[in-house]
């Protein structure tokens, strides 16, 4: 597909590189305004999530420095570290979902009592 279509992350559009790509673009309406806006929104979400992950990692380092300087107790550090690590796990999972890096869930074998896959 890469030989026929190219994604432009600045515009959010899919650009045809060949006549087959142009046909696919038109057939699937890949440059519909709603799809373009969705792609641009997803790219912005990825950038924001990445920035938030960086901030949380800086916060984790700052808390470690506070512990080292005896400004907080070990118990306070442990609680704060756990909260930050929980946030980081959530942020990483959300980022992976937006980037398409998570495995797809298994296809359901039945629906409404009807066997779909044997």
Structure description:
The chain is mainly α and 118 residues long. It has a domain at 49-102. It is built from three helices and four strands, in the order E-E-H-H-H-E-E. The chain has helices at 19-28, 33-68, 74-99; strands at residues 5-8, 13-16, 110-111, 114-115. The chain has a two-stranded antiparallel sheet. A two-stranded antiparallel sheet has the order 3-4. Helix 2 packs antiparallel against helix 3. The chain is elongated and about 65 Å long.
User: Which whole number gives the mean pLDDT?
Assistant: 95
Rg for CA atoms = 22 Å
Strand content: 5-15%
Structural class category = mainly alpha
Strand sequence of the main sheet, in spatial order? 1-2
Alpha plus pi helix count: 3
Instruction: Write down the secondary-structure element order.
Output: EEHHHEE
The beta-strand count equals 4
Biggest β-sheet, characterized?
2 strands, antiparallel
Keywords:
118 residues, mainly alpha, two-stranded antiparallel sheet, 3 helices, 10% strand
Q: In brief, what are we looking at here?
A:
The chain has 118 residues and is mostly helical.
Write the layout of secondary structure elements.
Elements: E1 5-8, E2 13-16, H1 19-28, H2 33-68, H3 74-99, E3 110-111, E4 114-115
Antiparallel strand pairs: 1-2, 3-4
Helix pairs in contact: 2-3
